[in-house]
């Protein structure tokens, strides 16, 4: 039977359900719920009886059913026990009902499936492996599909992967050329019978390997051919795909963690207390049983005749044994079952306080805060680590053009009448773009000087905006209303092209050979001669164009650290000014780019382009030769200026991060975004600062490199501390762990750790993860980039397991669900990426800033109230129970109760309602307006304090008392530290000495940190889009290239698909280099 076999490889045949069913692959139904009708009762009862008190009262109920030892009716135990279990079961069933409801909503979505040569609407849960599905624009992908064909040329389609990795920029996927010919022909698609042999289901989002066999030929498959469940089809009218993985086998579900039963530290504490109290109860029972045996042997004989006992019928030992169990029943109130009921009621009240909090209500979208569970409120006050997503959680993922520096002058600032820089407020009037018909109505810019420079015809300003309109990978189209719509691969480029559009340099259209823009109302067509694409090493992109006047120009934009090295020596003065401007922009958390150009000689360009063609045709060292030619032509550039784009943070993020850091809560950012983008957001949120002692970047490509980088970072951070301690402490495991915690407490300075996803995969291995955790916990800030959803959960589990700390995870997308489920407390933000995170969370709200109030106000109050309640509750129950223990010495240890149940119930009500009534009565009375008028003579103390403090002798007595109380303690502390210093004191003393002896130049220069931060801006689109554009593969045939009268010479004839498949889109995973794709 296949169901008992381990799947080694997956074999799927298209349009053949009967063939695929023999492998018993999972269907497309998903389950995120914990129970069903059959399993609810046993699983829920098992979970509930994991509570020690519930198990204890079940045993107590069994004892009460034995008449020889019970002096109380079993009814007094079974009713509250059943009540507690029923209430908890109803709450758990309600929570799971909403999970079932969410599952049904997803499973019942409709999708068009090709069945019996016809497209039929089928529910997602009925989709099978091997089916061919039709998707339309803006639809969610139902399963992991092999892309067969699409409405776009050459089988291209665009997908948004926000649910998987949090990125909203579009990704391109392309079908095999042999399947793209199928188009939308239903008969040909129904006759498609290709067989796919591929890897087994796994959680690697960036890796796929397989082979398609069709028509006696085999075709390699990689990740570029696969559309994953959770993606959304964008800018593509339709596409067809073949289901490879369905339901729980999809990569999205493989990255989703299981729903776990969460308990708070208070629950665990109560379980421990119950065990100790139960042990105390056993001791009391033994004492009373021994007393009963002694009493029976010495005094009980005198009562045998009176009680009509026969001689020898009852021994003293057996009487003591029965008495022991009787007292266990009588004294059971020391562990009251009402404790858990009361705790649940208090938690429910705290949940309503959170739901009703108007300061956590987001009025713009009418979204209140919601406590989706009632069992974790007090845990909010014990958080030590916060794991946060970036996109949509810390940021709005909206890029806005804010500033620019052109020819040494800053544009975007607002000045007052005295020419002093002022802040931009809502009262300031933005530049009026309403006169421009093609302007973006949402774009705002407040500096009118830039518009004046454009109108005056400043050539540098015109060239700057012209570069923004030409040097990009944006595609344009017109909607039904005739409005110009930009399709952007990254929101950064969209912001720059939109800014140029509003200032009069409008990007209109492009073909593989030309780019058409509108310059201040005049159409101009530029011949695209070469496209020098972006990659992570170059950190820049360039285009070479011939303008309508016949001049050849190279326009380039990129990270300033790279581009400044390519400038002509004559730019020295402008370089200094622009560098200062970039530092100013970076200080405000803006993402910056340097802008430069170069005039090229026609003869020189032709020679260079001939060498480029030869390099493209080379079979050996092709990439190195092309990179060398790019370096050769991108030199002697003339600097134009720089741009500053704001990745808008959510409101209040900086203040929230600062407050939580002051509360000694460590914040780790786990994001699927690029390293450069995450670093910029870290600076913008003040998680990273230029004043930090060091920022460790871990980017190793294998386990050995990662281990070495981690150990070097540890040596730089506290290697000296460890060397110092090894001379004083025996290096045993326990002592070493104690030393690490002491070093962490006494560590001076702020440090940060940044690690990539491929490095994190190796760092989470068993022999390296301890080094990673030790280093990360020493750092103030940790940022993990390009991580998969499963890696997010693994990082959370690592901290939970080895640090024994209370963790909180917060996110807004489906890629955060696994992390949210793994943490002690999961919080979902009602953002723009769906409700998956909210549905899996314990608490939800609309903005990250509400986390501060949730933890520091509601969390603290809940924990404080619960602790006070437990102390009061145990005191009350001990006071009542010990009365029966003491009464046993006066009743011959006969297991009689001193106070009956009705009295105990009355005492409960007096304690609870009476104390509340008395408290509020006194409170309202003492603060009422009329009490002073009714009893004026009873308040003579008003004003006495002020008069008494005017006496000198009073102050002398206060001073002498203070000195007499404090001085002995202070002297004792100083002598103890001097004569018997602890290990912590020794380390502090050594660190102070090292700090004094350390040269002031040991710190990294500030300029380097600022430069690194500015250079962090990078394009978010994938490498290869340059060749995609110049090849024309992504352009619809119905858009003919506009006639320009220019020479239609296409210089770059190399297949873009071949080059795209040979290049690595990003350093996301080391697995992507395992195979070479052959088309």
From TrEMBL:
Occurrences of domain P-type ATPase N-terminal (ranges): 12-78
Regions that span the bilayer: 72-90, 273-295, 315-341, 878-899, 911-932, 953-975
Subcellular location: Endomembrane system; Membrane
Single GO cellular component term: membrane
A molecular-function term among this protein's GO annotations: ATP binding
Region described as Disordered: spans on this chain: 991-1017, 1030-1050
Cofactor: Mg(2+)
A Pfam family annotated for this UniProt entry: PhoLip_ATPase_N
Annotated EC: 7.6.2.1
GO biological process, one term: phospholipid transport
Family matches, as InterPro entries: ATPase_P-typ_cyto_dom_N (IPR023299), ATPase_P-typ_P_site (IPR018303), ATPase_P-typ_TM_dom_sf (IPR023298), ATPase_P-typ_transduc_dom_A_sf (IPR008250), HAD-like_sf (IPR036412), HAD_sf (IPR023214), P-type_ATPase_IV (IPR006539), P-type_ATPase_N (IPR032631)
Keyword Transport applies: yes
PANTHER family for this protein: PHOSPHOLIPID-TRANSPORTING ATPASE IM-RELATED, PROBABLE PHOSPHOLIPID-TRANSPORTING ATPASE
Family: Belongs to the cation transport ATPase (P-type) (TC 3.A.3) family. Type IV subfamily.
Protein name: Phospholipid-transporting ATPase
Name of encoding gene: ATP8B4
């Amino acid at each position: 039977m296949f169901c008992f076999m381990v799947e080694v490889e997956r074999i799927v045949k298209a349009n053949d359900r009967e063939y695929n069913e023999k492998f018993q692959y999972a269907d497309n139904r998903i389950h995120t719920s914990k129970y069903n009708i059959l399993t609810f009762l046993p699983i829920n009862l098992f979970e509930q009886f994991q509570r020690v008190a519930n198990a204890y009262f079940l045993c107590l109920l069994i004892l009460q059913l034995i008449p020889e030892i019970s002096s109380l009716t079993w009814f007094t135990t079974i009713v509250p026990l059943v009540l507690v279990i029923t209430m908890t079961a109803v709450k758990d069933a309600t929570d799971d009902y909403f999970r079932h409801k969410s599952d049904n909503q997803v499973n019942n979505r409709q999708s068009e499936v090709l069945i019996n040569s016809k497209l039929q609407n089928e529910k997602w849960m009925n989709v099978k492996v091997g089916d061919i599905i039709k998707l339309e624009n803006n639809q969610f992908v139902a399963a992991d599909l092999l892309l067969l064909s699409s409405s776009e040329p050459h089988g291209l389609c665009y997908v948004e992967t926000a649910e998987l990795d949090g990125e909203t920029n579009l990704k391109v996927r392309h079908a095999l050329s042999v399947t793209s010919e199928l188009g939308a022909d239903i008969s040909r698609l129904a006759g498609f019978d290709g067989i796919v042999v591929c890897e087994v289901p796994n959680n690697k989002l960036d890796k796929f390997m397989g082979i398609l066999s069709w028509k006696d030929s085999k075709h390699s498959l990689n990740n570029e051919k696969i559309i994953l469940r959770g993606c959304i089809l964008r800018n593509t009218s339709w596409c067809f795909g073949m289901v490879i993985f369905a339901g729980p086998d999809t990569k999205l579900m493989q990255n989703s963690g299981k729903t776990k039963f969460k308990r708070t530290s208070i629950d665990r504490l109560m379980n421990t207390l119950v065990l100790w109290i139960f042990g105390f109860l056993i001791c009391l029972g033994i004492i009373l049983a021994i007393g009963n045996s002694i009493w029976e042997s010495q005094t009980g004989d005198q009562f045998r005749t009176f009680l009509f006992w026969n001689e020898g019928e009852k021994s003293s030992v057996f009487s003591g044994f029965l008495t022991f169990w009787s007292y266990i029943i009588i004294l059971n109130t020391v562990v009251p079952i009402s404790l858990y009921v009361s705790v649940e009621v208090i938690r429910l009240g705290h949940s309503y306080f959170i739901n009703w909090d108007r300061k956590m209500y987001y009025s713009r979208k009418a979204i209140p805060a919601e406590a989706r569970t009632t069992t974790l409120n007090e845990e909010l006050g014990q958080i030590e680590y916060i794991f946060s997503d970036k996109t949509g959680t810390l940021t709005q993922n909206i890029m806005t053009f804010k500033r620019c520096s052109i020819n040494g002058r800053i544009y975007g600032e607002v000045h007052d009448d005295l020419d002093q820089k002022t802040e931009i407020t809502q009262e300031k009037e933005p530049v009026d773009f309403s006169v421009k018909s093609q302007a973006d109505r949402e774009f705002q810019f407040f500096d009118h000087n830039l518009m004046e420079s454009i109108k005056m015809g400043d050539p540098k300003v015109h060239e700057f905006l012209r570069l923004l309109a030409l040097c990009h990978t944006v595609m344009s189209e017109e909607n039904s209303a005739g409005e110009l719509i930009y399709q952007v691969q990254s929101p950064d480029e969209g912001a720059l092209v939109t800014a140029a559009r509003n200032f009069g340099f409008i990007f209109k259209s492009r073909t593989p050979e030309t780019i058409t823009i509108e310059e201040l109302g005049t159409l101009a067509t530029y011949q695209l001669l070469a496209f020098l694409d972006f990659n992570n090493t170059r950190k820049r992109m360039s285009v070479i164009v011939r303008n309508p006047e016949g001049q050849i120009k190279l326009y380039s934009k990129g990270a300033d650290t790279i581009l400044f090295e390519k400038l002509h020596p004559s730019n020295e003065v402008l370089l200094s000014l622009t560098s200062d401007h970039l530092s100013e922009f970076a200080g405000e958390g803006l993402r910056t780019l340097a802008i430069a150009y170069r005039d090229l000689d026609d003869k020189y360009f032709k020679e260079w382009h001939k060498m480029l063609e030869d390099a493209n045709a080379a079979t050996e060292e092709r990439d190195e030769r092309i990179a060398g030619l790019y370096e050769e032509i991108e030199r002697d550039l003339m600097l134009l200026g720089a741009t500053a784009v704001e990745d808008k943070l959510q409101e209040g993020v900086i203040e929230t991060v600062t407050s939580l850091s002051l509360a000694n809560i460590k914040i780790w950012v786990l994001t699927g975004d690029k390293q450069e983008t995450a670093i910029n957001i870290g600076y913008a949120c003040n998680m990273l600062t230029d004043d930090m002692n060091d920022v460790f970047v871990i980017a190793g490509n294998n386990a050995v490199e990662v281990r070495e980088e981690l150990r070097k970072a540890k040596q730089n951070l506290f290697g000296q501390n460890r060397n110092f301690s090894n001379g004083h402490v025996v290096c045993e495991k326990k002592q070493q762990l104690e030393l690490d915690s002491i070093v962490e407490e006494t560590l001076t300075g702020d440090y940060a750790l940044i690690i990539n996803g491929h490095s994190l995969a190796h760092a989470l291995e068993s022999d390296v993860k301890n080094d990673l955790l030790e280093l990360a916990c020493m750092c103030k800030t940790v940022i993990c980039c390009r991580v998969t959803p499963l890696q997010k959960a693994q990082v959370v589990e690592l901290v939970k397991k080895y640090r024994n700390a209370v963790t909180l995870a917060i996110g807004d997308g489906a890629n955060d669900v696994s992390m949210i489920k793994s943490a002690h407390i999961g919080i979902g933000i009602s953002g723009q990426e769906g409700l998956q995170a909210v549905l899996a969370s314990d608490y939800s709200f609309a903005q990250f800033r509400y986390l501060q109030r949730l933890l520091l106000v509601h969390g603290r109050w809940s924990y404080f109230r619960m602790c006070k309640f437990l102390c009061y509750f145990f005191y009350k129950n001990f006071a009542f129970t010990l009365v029966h223990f003491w009464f046993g010495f006066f009743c011959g240890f006969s297991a009689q109760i001193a106070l009956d149940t009705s009295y105990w119930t009355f005492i409960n009500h007096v304690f609870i309602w009476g104390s509340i009534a008395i408290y509020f009565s006194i409170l309202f009375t003492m603060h009422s307006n009329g009490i002073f008028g009714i009893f004026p003579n009873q308040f003579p103390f008003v004003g006495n304090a002020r008069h008494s403090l005017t006496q000198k002798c009073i102050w002398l007595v206060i001073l002498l008392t203070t000195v007499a109380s404090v001085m002995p303690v202070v002297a004792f502390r100083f002598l103890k530290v001097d004569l018997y210093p602890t290990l912590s004191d020794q380390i502090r003393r050594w660190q102070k000495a090292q700090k004094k002896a350390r040269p002031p130049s040991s710190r990294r220069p500030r300029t380097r940190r600022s430069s690194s931060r500015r250079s962090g801006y990078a394009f978010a689109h994938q490498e290869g889009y340059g060749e995609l554009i110049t090849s024309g593969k992504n352009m619809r045939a119905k858009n003919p290239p506009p006639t320009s009268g220019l020479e239609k010479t296409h210089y770059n004839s190399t297949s873009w698909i071949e080059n795209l498949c040979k290049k690595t889109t990003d350093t996301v995973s080391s697995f992507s280099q395992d195979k070479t794709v052959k088309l």
